Amino acid sequence: MSASGRRRAAAWAMVALLLAEMLGAVLIGPTGISPSRVLTALAHPGGTSVVAEIVWQIRMPRVLGAALVGAALGLAGAIMQALLRNPLADPYLIGTSAGASLGATVAQMAAPSLGLMPAGAFVGAAGAAVLASAASRTRGGGSVTIVLVGYALSVILGALTSLLLTFDHSELVQIYFWFLGGLGSVTWSQIALLAAVVAVGLAVALAYRRELDALALGEREANYLGVAVARTRILLLLLAGLVTAVAVSAAGLIGFVGLVAPHVARWAGGAVHGRTLLLSALGGGGFLVLADTVARSLPVGEIPVGIVTAIIGGPFFIWLIVRRERGMAQ
To answer: Are 190 and 65 within 8 A, CB to CB?
Structure first.
C-alpha cells in the first residue's frame, strides 16, 4: 500500500474508532441496562420510557460533550503547535487556562447560586486569548513573544485566583473539582454551541491550511511565499483561544488532550495541515470519550476526567518525546 493509501486508511480507522468509542460509552453506565434496550432507545429519540430518558438526557449529552470538547482541544492544539512550530505547545499555552480559572472563581464567588462558572470561565479564557493575540501585534512580536506573554499571563492570573481563594474558602471544593474537569453537567444547549464552534473553527483553520504549511518552514520563509504572517498569526491565535474558551466553559480544565492529539494526527496523516487539523479534532474527541468512559466506570466511583487524561496522556506524551528524540539522534 502506498503512503497516501496508508494515511487514508489511518484516517478512516480514527473515524471508526471514535464512533465505536461513542457507542460503547453510551452502552456503559452506573445503571445496568442491556445493550439491546439501549440500542432500541437510541433508535427512538422521542421515547418516554425510563431507558430513553437515561440514554438521551444523561448518557448522550455526556458522550457528545466529550467528543466535541476533545475535538475543540485537539483542533486548538494543532493550531498552536503549527503557529509556534513547537510540539510542546498546547491550547492553554497563551494563558487561557489561567484566565478560565480566574473567571470561574470570580463568577462562583460573586453569585454561587446562579451557576455562572461556565460563563465566567469563557470570559476569562477569551480575555486571555485576546490579550495574547494583542501582544503578538507588537512590532517584531513573534512566536517567542507569544510564549512569553502566555507564561506571564498564566503566572499573573494564577496568582490572582490563588489570592481570591485565600480570602474566601466557601466555594473552594466546587472550584477545585471544576479545575479537574468534568462532563457530567454538559447540556444540550452547550452541545449545540460546541458543535457550531468546532465546525466554524475547523472550517476557518482549514481555509488557512496552506498558510500553516508555509509557517512550518519558518516565518521568514512564509513571508517569501506570500503569507501575511502577522495577520495570519493573530487570526489563528485568536481562533485557537476562543475555541479553547468554549471547551473550557463546558467541561473545565482538561489537560493533555490538545497536546497529544496533534502528535497522533501527524503520525496518522503526515505533516500536511489539511489532514492534521481534521485528524487532531478526531483524535482529541476519541481520546476524551475514552478517558471519560474510564473516569465514570471505575469500581471506586467516578473521578474527574482530568485525572484520567493526565494518567493516560502524560506517559503517552513522554513516550512520544523519547521516540522523537531517538529519531533525531539517528
So the answer is: yes
Contact 198, 89 (CB under 8 A): no
Using a cut of 0.70, tell me whether the model's pTM lies above it: yes
Asked if residue 21 lies in contact with residue 289, where contact means CB atoms within 8 angstroms, the answer is yes
List phi, psi (to 5°) of 218.
125, 155
Cell numbers 425510563 correspond to 50
pLDDT digit of tens for each residue in the chain (330 aa)?
566 677 778 788 888 999 999 999 999 887 778 888 988 888 888 777 888 898 899 999 999 999 999 999 999 999 999 888 888 888 898 899 999 999 999 998 888 888 888 899 999 999 988 888 787 666 555 677 788 888 899 999 999 999 998 887 777 888 888 888 889 889 999 999 999 999 999 999 999 999 999 988 888 888 888 888 888 888 998 899 999 999 999 999 999 999 999 988 988 878 888 889 999 999 999 999 999 999 998 888 889 999 999 998 888 878 877 776 666 555
The fold of 3-329 is ABC transporter involved in vitamin B12 uptake, BtuC (1.10.3470)
State the DSSP string of 186-253. --HHHHHHHHHHHHHHHHHHHHTHHHHHHHTT-HHHHHHTT--HHHHHHHHHHHHHHHHHHHHHHH--
Domain chopping of the chain, boundaries: 3-329
Residue in the structure block whose three cell numbers are 476569562:
124
* Polymer length in residues for the chain: 330
Alpha-carbon distance 186 to 306, whole Å?
A: 15
